[in-house]
Amino acid sequence: MIRTVPSRRQAIADDLRQQIATGQLKAGERLPSEAQLATRYTVSTPTLRSALALLQGEGLVEKIHGSGNFIRHPRRRLTYAGGTGTSASWTTTSALLRVSVRIMDLRAHGDLTALLNVPPSSPLTEVCSVTHEGESPHSLARVYVPRDLAPADFAGGLLSPADVAAHLAELRPPLAEVQEKVSARLPTLEEAATLRISTALAVLSLVRVATDVTGRVVEAALLVLPGDRADALFTTRFMIDERGPKE
Amino acid sequence: MIRTVPSRRQAIADDLRQQIATGQLKAGERLPSEAQLATRYTVSTPTLRSALALLQGEGLVEKIHGSGNFIRHPRRRLTYAGGTGTSASWTTTSALLRVSVRIMDLRAHGDLTALLNVPPSSPLTEVCSVTHEGESPHSLARVYVPRDLAPADFAGGLLSPADVAAHLAELRPPLAEVQEKVSARLPTLEEAATLRISTALAVLSLVRVATDVTGRVVEAALLVLPGDRADALFTTRFMIDERGPKE
DNA sequence: GAGTGGTCTAGACCACGAG
DNA sequence: TCGTGGTCTAGACCACTCA
Questions:
Q1: Which of A34, A42, A105, B218 has the fewest CB neighbours in a 10 Å radius?
Q2: Secondary structure of B81-112 in HEC code, one letter for each residue
């Protein structure tokens, strides 16, 4: 159990972490090149890179291909608020957030048919959005709605996300239930590229299914949030004289 | 944007994934040694290892130092049910689950004081538990309770988890609110060792804080679930004539 | 084009697991 | 002890970014 050699990469990561914590390395600053760092620590480049990979995984460092490794700004964690029926609910919604939305019509296939509980090939509207805060993408959302619940002026248009949410709310009956399945995994290559994160950084993946009072699934959403920048918060309140749900 | 070379490691990972999916490689089976695989795919060992790392990240392969790489059994995903006040609530609770519990007294320090909203050094009881399904650990939980809410026969004892939950429920007033903050990250070295997972596999980290009707925090729990084996599910039901929480 | 990170090689040596 | 994975080296060459 004795750690004979604390592993070069751990030692290097610890050292850099320390420098970041103490402010010797400031946010936004560029680290020396990997080759220089490798020389300084007298390790080979792959070893140094694996040390940096640890820091990336912790969200302390961001690599930008071709330009260098940068100390990340003290990450402003965003909190996704669970249990609401809205398309994008951030407790820290601020003017700083910029959202790009793309709307497309498509037909149900694969997992979507099961999620939305519709027959294959039934018409859907897909709303893809990427939330940015300044330069860095903060979330990736794909929302699927049965076509008849999507306003006609959706398709092909570019609307503000507030408009999207408002329009959706208009057409559908009151929600009865929202289920959110949360999992942790590594991002796909595509997700990593969109979110500008390393494939070694964990993401929070949420699948949200909203059902209306008639039991119909009115929305299914797939959300991907970078693990270093986002949490999801779920609050359950109990009524007096109610100890909690069944079981 | 054209993918010039689909990367050796991706190609190898894809090939192995395929073989697992089609059943050419069966669950529990050992893969050829890394050296043999490297030869077969005509790549160097580090490259082959990085391909295996991808599969580990997806939970398809488990490495065991000194004995080889093994195809994981079709993972029976466990689902953590959010919004309940109980210490360990699994929707798939079954006799297969074995739980080891360790109970200790300690004093509040660091983050714990803030989480539990108690002064530093105030007495707490810590319940650590590891859930196993067969050989593989499935979750790691540390539950903190103010000492006066923990039965005297807790300390130092080894109880079944059901007993723990029952005893806790007896002493405290009805819960008013449970907050669960979910995040995705990579495991610490210690967590990875306990859960027998690679440090490259994402974990779901839950912080649950339960408050009673008087506003007192009666329990804070830190849960760590391996991303490849566990999800968390949160269900929100809306009353009629209530469109959902504010905002 | 100069400099950066991304990927890969072909080894070496160490640490762990099982017989 | 022997075979396995774990770590590391000292380069090579490619791809991206920016001036």
A1: A42
A2: ECCCCCCCCECCCCCCEEEEEEEEEEECCCHH
